[in-house]
Structure formats: C-alpha cells, structure tokens
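Can you make up a protein sequence with its backbone structure tokens?

===
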Amino acid sequence: MNQTVKMSQAELIFQLAKTNVEQENRLKSTEMRLSVLEEEVKKLSKKAVGEYGCSTMSAYVQRHKLPIYVSDIAKLGNDATRLCRKRGYPVNKVNIDRFGVVNVYPDFILQELLDDYIRTTRRINGAIMKPI
C-alpha cells in the first residue's frame, strides 16, 4: 500500500537538510578517494616512464639503428611485455596505421632487452647469427 507521510514544513526542511549533509559527506569521501587514486596513478606513471620515454619496439630499433631482423621484432616484443609485467610496469598500446595496435614500452626496458639480445648474438659474414 502506498502511504504518504504528512510532514510539517519544518520537518520537510530538516529531512532535506539531513539528506543534503549525507550527500555532501559522500561527495567529500569520493573526492578524497579520487585524490588518493590520482596520486597513485602519478607515482605509477613515473615508475613506468621515469626520466625516459616510451617507444614501440620497431621505433626504438630504428631510432638507435640496431642490427635486429624484422622477423625477431615480434618475439622481442613478447619478451618486453613479459619483462614489463614481471617488474610491474604497464604495457600501453598505440594505434599505428601501418601495423595496427602495437605495444609501447618504457625505453629503459627496451634498452636492457635489446642490449642483451645484441650481446648474445654475433655477426658472421654480415648477418646476425645466434650462438649455438
């Protein structure tokens, strides 16, 4: 049964004020949580990028003119993704017309990974050969 409760004007104003105070308290709480989350995002972003930039695997290889076969880029990308996840760094994505959606990694991760890759390969007759 739908019952209406009769309230005096003072009771109605009191009820509205009480509801308003509850909503303001919830809003303040939400704003405080949002502020904490924003700070956490800033910290994580700094951790991910630091003083370095971010690049796709292909862009990093081209920029530094590294002797990497194009066929190895996908495997190295998977390795970079695994390394980022292992260390808690986010792997972002970017849409590139030529390739579609590709991953973007912190440059310091790519530097470490590719330095290791180049160190464990050797040049024989102008081609990169992996040691046996």
Q: What stands out?
A: The chain is about 60% helix and 15% strand. The chain has a mean pLDDT of 83. The two ends are 84 Å apart (CA to CA).
